[in-house]
Design brief:
The protein has 256 residues and is of the alpha+beta class. 19% of the residues lie in helices and 37% in strands. Strands 1, 2, 3, 4, 5, 6, 8, 9, 13 and 16 form a ten-stranded mixed β-sheet that branches. A six-stranded antiparallel β-sheet has the order 12-11-10-7-14-15, with no helix packed on it.
């Protein structure tokens, strides 16, 4: 059984015809299922728990990366498969998973090529893509074996499970950013301002990168920690990899 969870932004009238095409295609493929529209008034955990108890085996996020991450943070603790039909903007994770947009993604869901992927976890919150720490002096304690102290306030630290969008494949070896290798990567970037008033530019480059399984991030001054550009936590935080945590439907053009 399939459960399709529509993000609340899809309630806008401009999405009606696009959703209709998706629903027709799902029916044609024989994978139609229950549709539930998310809203602040619905408890996502209770909704997913009830549907799984009713026999749902595949949960499909219909929306953008934010939709997918919200669903993963609940569904990851259940034995279900997760699909994703991306619509509109902010769908970088869909590209990495090899998913085309909108009704074309229905064919990928139907093909059910399922891969077990690692998830990162920071203070109890799962992330699929990355964690970004606000610039500032910070200490990274890696698996209680060694420390990396960053004193420069212009350094940006990213903890990555998937390849970050600002980093091309030419910048790193193929062994990095594989969500099936059982490790995360810490990516330390040094800003390269190109203008007097510029703090960060698109030309920022990474200074170092190292893999780990567990990491503690500490700072004297509290810094913001963004998980998948969604939830905001504060340092100190503990980050770890949870190997093969989710079953997710991917496309042939996946980038790992």
């Amino acid at each position: 059984m399939y459960l399709y969870l529509y993000d609340s932004f899809l309630n806008e009238q401009k999405y009606n015809s696009r959703l209709a095409k998706i629903e027709i295609r799902l029916t044609d493929l024989g994978i139609g299922g229950k549709i539930s529209r998310l809203s602040p008034l619905k408890n996502l955990h209770d909704l997913i728990d009830d549907e799984i108890r009713s026999g749902v085996q595949t949960i499909v996020a219909v929306g953008n990366d934010k939709t997918l991450i919200e669903i993963i943070n609940v569904a990851a603790d259940y034995k279900v498969s997760i699909g994703y039909i991306p619509i509109g903007e902010h769908t970088k994770i869909a590209d990495i998973l090899g998913l085309p947009g909108e009704d074309k993604a229905c064919d990928v869901v139907s093909a059910r090529k399922i891969e077990k992927l690692d998830l990162g976890k920071v203070n109890g919150t799962y992330f699929l893509g990355s964690v970004k720490i606000s610039p500032g002096p910070v200490v990274l304690e890696c698996e209680k074996k060694y420390q990396v102290e960053i004193k420069q306030s212009v350094c940006q630290v990213n903890i990555c499970n998937l390849r970050p969008g600002f980093l091309s494949t030419a910048n790193t070896t193929g062994s990095h950013f594989n969500p099936q290798d059982g490790v995360l990567e810490a990516l330390i970037s040094i800003a390269k301002p190109t203008q007097f008033f510029s703090f960060f530019s698109a030309k920022s480059c990474y200074d170092s990168i190292f893999p780990f399984k567990k990491l503690s991030i500490k700072s004297k001054k509290s810094l913001s920690v963004h998980t998948d550009d969604q939830r905001v936590l504060k340092t100190p935080v503990d980050v770890e990899i949870i190997p093969k945590k989710i079953n997710i439907i991917v496309g042939k053009e996946r980038q790992f």
